[in-house]
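FIELD: query
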Amino acid sequence: MVGALILLGATGAAASPVEEPRASIRRYALIIGSSEGGAGRERLRYASSDALALSQVMEELGGVAPGDRLLLLEADRAALLTAIARMGRLISSTSPTEARRELVLYYSGHSDSEGLLPRGERLAYTELRRLLSEVPVDVRIAILDSCGSGALTRFKGGVSRLSFLSDISSQVRGHAFLASSSADEVAQEADSIGASFFTHFLISGLRGAADADGDGRVTLNEAYQFAYRETLARTERTQGGPQHAAYDIQLAGSGDLVMTDLRGAQSRLTLAEPVEGHLFVRNWGNQLIAELRKQPGRRLMLRLDPGQYHVTLERSSQRFEAELTVAKGGETKLGTADFVPMTVMRTAQRGGGPVLAEPAVAVDAPVVAVNLSLVPPLATNMLLGPRTLNHVSFGVLGTRSQQVRGLAVAGGMSWVDGTMEGLQASGLANVAGGEVWGGQVALGGNLAFGNGRGVQVAGLVNIAEGSFTGFQLSGTANRTDAELRGVQGGAVNTAEVVKGVQIGLINIAGDVTGTQVGLLNVGNEVRGLQLGLLNIAEDVTVPIGALNIVRKGRLSFELWADDVAPANVGLKYGSERVYVLVVEGVQPWERTYRSFSFVGLGLHFSLAPRTYLDVDVSAGSWRRQLFGEKPSNALGRLRVMVGWELKRRLALFAGASLSYYDAPQDDEDREVSWMPQWTVGGGSPPARLWPGLLLGVRI
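FIELD: result
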């Protein structure tokens, strides 16, 4: 894994004294994750989760307000460029009285020696540097977690060395480019840590592991040195090889920035001075939260969310473990630990390549093939300790396992701390703290806190905090925080990124590639279909609904005359390409008064400058008299129109139409149009077709 940090000092002071109050700094964050790198590159497993983790840390400890943070998952080149421009507009709109404005840009995904490769679409480093230089901030910090991004420093003479930032001062001008691997080194991510190496250690450092001087603040210098050192140590024995930092520095003056402030943290874990060794901190869902090497005589503080944790301590010939609870609003001290086994580490190269295995000292968890449980801890698992692997687990009221590879069944709740491979079924709820490979079935709810691949079926709620590939079905609600690939079905569906189908009463998502079907559909960039009563999106390919609200879409009013009605008013609304058409028209003649109502769907094409083509199909009815004494008759129309924009908000258009009319048996009504008509079909009277003309104005 490559972590390239770009520190661009723009005009004025790029860093201020560390003692400066945080209120005088406004920090913005643009966090981007993109798993796909195009043909021939392996899909990354942890790009999105890395982005989510860093986003959380920057909000909790890095001084980034929720409104100043933009999180973009599974972005392509266009979305990345749009996000940078959007961040620039956001910063430009803020008050100029801020003492200092900072931008943190993080990219987790693929790259090569020439540039980033979000979804295989290249964004050159030169263009990225130019775009960042145009953002109106005093300090720019960019972190690129991808293969080959060390090439960003190459043409400036960057070399592979230890990190160089060593002073804390008030002024920085110029720029610094830092990369955690050189241009010819692979970037790696690991299944055992559930993240890329560099981002994993960077986040551990920002949570407090990198606080070398113990002042409760982590500077850019401390965070980088910690991530450099730990990444190198953990990759020296992998098949991908060690990762070394490279840099290019052109600074007038020297300095560093405070990245996170731990002093106001609501919940903290303090490691006592006698504790020494390699520490792994996992939450109760078996997710690795922090990793560090602690020297004796050093008191260390980590910012953690309230909850239960499992801490592993490794020394040269000994391993220990401890389980503890971090309380909200308090400090939890840790001074002792007990032995614990560990699993074998597997890694994959960021940017493509085979899966790698690190020869880390490890053994499998103890196996209890069949676990019988009344309610934890009254279970056969306790014979070998609670952290065991089961192939079959049966519970009367509930069952709990460290891992399940097979079947877990419980009358109440089925709980798996780590990964679940197989089928989990219960009468109340299923919880998997790690990944799910298989199915979860419950009358109550399913919760999978890691990646899911398979099926979740529940009568109440499904929640998958990580990415989910497969099918979610619930009677009331589904939620996937990161990426959903597959189908969500329920009353309320929510997901950060959707690649598939959402079907429910209410569908809420970030970026969507696929379909949303419901009464209310809400999305950011929707590449596909939104079908519902109300559709809301930043941009959408095909919106079909009674009301479509598309920020990048169209809304226009048209007035025209045609062969059927000399007075028509229409409303077109939808996306840039697809629109919904609503029409009311009248024949105001006293003897043959008619009113027409149409609803249709159309396509808009931009031709030459200030010229466009619209094609739409609509269907409706007309009423013979003012108050509708005569029954309504069916009328359908195909229209092709060419328009010329006279001004920005005014256009003239003309076109041709083909109308189809089906009258009831006692009402032939050939006066519906003055154009020549011909009969089709064998009805009595037969249906009729005729061509028509139209001319109008668009506002």
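FIELD: remark
The two ends are 53 Å apart (CA to CA).
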